Each structure stands twice: as C-alpha cells, then as structure tokens.
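in:
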C-alpha cells in the first residue's frame, strides 16, 4: 500500500475480496489495472516474477487516481499450477487528476 503497510490473505478469492473492499472504501466507482513487461526467472519449483503496473481509479467526482509501479512476486509450483506466494508493490507515482473546467465560451454555445 502507498503507506507502506502490508497485507496477507490466503487464496485468490480472499485476496480479491480484500482488494475490492479497499477500493470500495476508497470511494472508487471503477478501476482498471494494466500489467505488462512481465519478466520471469524460474529456479526449479520456485520463480521470481516482476511486472509493471498502470492503474486508473475513478472517483465519484469524476477525478481519477493514477498509479504507476512495479510488482515483485515470489511464485511456487503447486499441483494446481504456479501460484503467487508473495507480492510486493512499489509505487513510482500516485497522482490525482481532475478534468479542467470547460471554457465558459464553449458552455454557452
């Protein structure tokens, strides 16, 4: 989290429910997360993975919070496939952006 606090949840459903509650409590009406440039290094039954994050969060007033950062993951191979054991998000930027007001000349036309 931006304040440096960590959070632990077991399983994807528990993690998704927790994240949803965080976004709802922050007042976001919509969020979108784009993850790319994924780099994986496998070492037997474990691996490290890094990826870039660009996230947009829409607030009720129409402004948006934009986050850019990197995920650093430790993953492990299980009988059900590869699973994330731990994830660290390092934020590079976290900005609130509001649309500028339209010029009054445009509003009166």
């Amino acid at each position: 989290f931006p304040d440096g606090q960590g959070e632990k949840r077991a399983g994807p459903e528990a993690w998704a429910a927790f994240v949803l509650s965080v976004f709802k409590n922050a007042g976001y009406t919509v969020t979108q997360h784009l993850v790319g440039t994924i780099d994986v290094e496998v070492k037997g039954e474990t691996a490290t993975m890094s990826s870039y994050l660009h996230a947009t969060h829409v607030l009720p007033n129409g402004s948006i919070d934009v986050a850019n950062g990197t995920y650093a993951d430790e993953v492990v191979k299980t009988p059900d496939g590869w699973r994330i054991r731990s994830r660290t998000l390092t934020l590079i930027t976290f900005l609130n952006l509001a649309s500028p007001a339209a010029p009054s000349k445009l509003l009166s036309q």
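note: The first strand starts at residue 30 and ends at 43.
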